[in-house]
């Protein structure tokens, strides 16, 4: 079983794409938890997942992978999302409060 810290360290690009796919709804830790739930085959309770993917983390991750080439521009920038993931991973996977819910826009 994977945990979110391992997801941040092992799959940083995938976590960044989940942030970009969510248009910034997902914070770095939330994105890692979504990736973890998908890897473990578990559902995940999150408004974005319920609204867009019927609560299925795996579908959200698949959409992030399928749309990865379009993650550009305001609120969907892969580059910005990846920088956030790298900052959180370098901080022992601890997310500072200023990176909570969409505060990087």
> Which spans have pLDDT < 50 for at least 5 consecutive residues?
none
Provide a count of the helices.
Answer: 6
Distance between the termini: 33 Å
Order of helices and strands: HHHHHH
Please give a structural write-up:
The chain has helices at residues 4-10, 12-21, 28-40, 47-53, 57-66, 78-90. The protein is mainly α and 105 residues long. It has one domain (4-91).
Summarize the structure.
This protein has 105 residues and is mostly helical. The protein is built from six helices and no strands. The longest helix is centred in the first third of the chain and has 13 residues.
Supply the key terms.
105 residues, globular, single chain, mainly alpha
What does the secondary structure layout of this molecule look like, with pairings?
Layout: H1 4-10, H2 12-21, H3 28-40, H4 47-53, H5 57-66, H6 78-90
Helix pairs in contact: 1-3, 2-3, 2-5, 2-6, 3-5
């Amino acid at each position: 079983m994977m945990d979110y810290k391992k997801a941040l360290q092992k799959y940083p690009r995938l976590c960044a794409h989940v942030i970009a796919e969510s248009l910034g709804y997902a914070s770095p830790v939330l994105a890692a938890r979504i990736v973890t739930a998908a890897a473990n085959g578990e559902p995940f309770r999150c408004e974005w997942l319920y609204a867009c993917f019927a609560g299925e983390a795996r579908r959200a991750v698949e959409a992030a992978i399928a749309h990865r080439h379009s993650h550009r521009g305001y609120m969907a920038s892969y580059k910005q999302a990846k920088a956030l993931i790298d900052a959180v991973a370098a901080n022992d996977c601890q997310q500072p409060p200023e990176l909570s819910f969409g505060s990087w826009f």
